[in-house]
Amino acid sequence: MSFKSVGTVLTRTLWARGNRTPPPARPPRVNRLSTSCGALAGSKQIEKSKGQSCSSDTDRPSSSDAPSSSEPPHKCGTGEKKRLKETVGAPGASGVRRRSFTSNAAPMDQTSFLWSRYNDLKRLVYDLIPPGACKSLNSSVIYANNEVSLEEVDIYGFDYDYTLAQYSNALNTLIYDTAKGFLIEHFKYPEEIAKYEYIPNFTVRGLHYDIQKGLLMKIDAFHYIEPGTVYRGLSPVSDDEVLYLYGGTFHVPLSQDSGFYGKGPKVKQFMDIFSIPEMTLLAVANDFFIANDIEYDPVHLFKDVSEAIGMVHLKGYMYKWIMQDLDKFILRKEETDAVLHRLVSQGKKLFLITNSPFSFVDKGMTHMVGKNWRDFFDVVIVQADKPHFFTDCIKPFRRLDNNGDLRWEKINRLDKGQIYKQGNLFDFLRLTGWRGSKVLYFGDHLYSDLADLMLRHGWRTAAIVPELEHETKIVSAHRYAVTLTWLQALTGLMERLQTHRDPASKKVFLEWQKEREELRVMTKNLFNPQFGSIFRTCHNPTYFSRRLSRFSDIYMASLSCLLNYDPSYTFYPRRTPLQHEAPLWMDQLCTGCMKTPHLDDMASIR
Questions:
Q1: 305 and 196 both lie in a single domain
Q2: Which family does the similarity line name (predicted)?
């Protein structure tokens, strides 16, 4: 059951605890759900209220307006039908009449009033989320950002690394250790750095790195740094220092932020999975110089670490490790084989465009699919130099012979069973005629693999996001569901009651704000103690998440997710409520669905 389903259950429960039937539509002057969840008592309890006070906890005034204890509460006579004053809801919104709270007690003070609302709401949240409410989430699902019909897709294209071939985390340790060795041997860094071992799960994909300040951080979709996610070396930087460093704001200007391909003048975004060991090495190297009080330039450090990581790839170390132990490093080989067999049996055309060399791809594909793996693909292109392959029209295609050596003839067509090197997308489109939405391309790098294909050429794109497997497990946990729902409900309660500004109320709000911050940290730490989820900051999508929704029509944990869908399946994106559409989220449902605190006053003015 998703959170939207939980919201539906909550709505029905609210109805069930009232008149047992959904509220009918009312004239323009309608009311909202009672903002006091304690007012949700059953109809039997309401019947017992006849003859008692008809004062409403919902409309309880602030302490300055409350009647003195010497004034007797108003009593309704037997059979008297007292209609409570109703407030005007949002235009076009329907609601239910507020139910009266029955009590002969003297009016409570403001602090008690706020805490009673808090406790009522908390009981409601914890009562209405059954164990296993989100168990329907699983990592084998394909998620849609845009509507895609597989029946309309005739051609499937693939990247190789982390798409056709999924690698184990053991590869990150080798990349880190080897690049660290290059720092010491080639760039003459102090040998004491060698004592720093690789730290699994210290970083996450999609982080930004301030090159001049030497800071690793997570930025949201609006270019704001998430508080509590800034690290200098291996130590967190306080929010106060972050504000000082960035001129009193958490905002990173667009002129400084990463460019289209994540390589800005002052800030770089790490978008691919191979960047995980690079971020860790940057953190470790910074930490060493800081801990030993050694003066250094963060710009030089960034350049050296980047070159050291690049040497691991350029010198072929990564290719050698994987080819020497394919079983250790390549995951899901049977599933990749099954996907290719299935697509070919359905009459689909397949092609491969990768930056990796042919010898490496040939070894891996033979391991996963067999010696005849080239028979599955209509076109195979290696060392393509993406993303320049998609934007430049200069480099021509070169054919490789069976030994991997370059041939010299001009390429006038792309033949099945042959291997081609370099080239460009414009010649690819001219020679194949594969254009538009009938092409679906899979890749793991949002910029290098997917961005240009979607924005410039209208191909369908599919992002491979292995982190989904971990994140969906967290989101599916009952602890996360309850914590997040209570966080949302508490936020809504604070928004609804913020008009209470007397000193007693302010003290309560300070406690609520503290709890809200603790809940936000708790939900973040469930994913990663340093940086949280790759998809979300406290309440906004991350910079990575926004790019994921912009550059991919669909996304999934691995290519094997395709095996769960038939060839004519259509992926439909869920309608994501906009803020002005007043969705029945937990916070709004439990606090009256009232986003405007002064709606009564505005109604009288109008």
A1: yes
A2: Belongs to the 5'(3')-deoxyribonucleotidase family.
Is residue 225 a part of any domain in this protein?
yes
Q: Which residues are catalytic?
A: 159, 161
| Helix spans in 315-432 (H) | 317-324, 326-329, 333-345, 358-368, 388-391, 425-432
The parent domain of residue 282 ranges over 167-321
559 and 575 both lie in a single domain: yes
Q: How far apart are CA 126 and CA 128, in angstroms?
A: 6
The SS3 assignment for 154 reads coil
64, 48 Cβ separation under 8 angstroms: no
pLDDT tens digit sequence for 26-57 = 344 333 333 333 433 343 443 444 444 333 34
Encode pLDDT of 388-427 as tens digits.
999 888 899 999 998 888 998 999 999 999 999 999 999 9
Counting residues of the chain whose pLDDT is more than 90, the rounded percentage is 62
Is 188 in the same domain as 301? yes
pTM of the predicted model over 0.90:
no
Residues 565 and 539 in one domain: yes
DSSP 534-588: SSBSSSSBBHHHHHHHHH-SEEESSGGGGGGS-TT-EE----PPPGGG----HHH
Q: Is 604 exposed, middle or buried (0-12, 13-18, 19+ CB in 10 A)?
A: exposed
Number of domains in the chain: 3
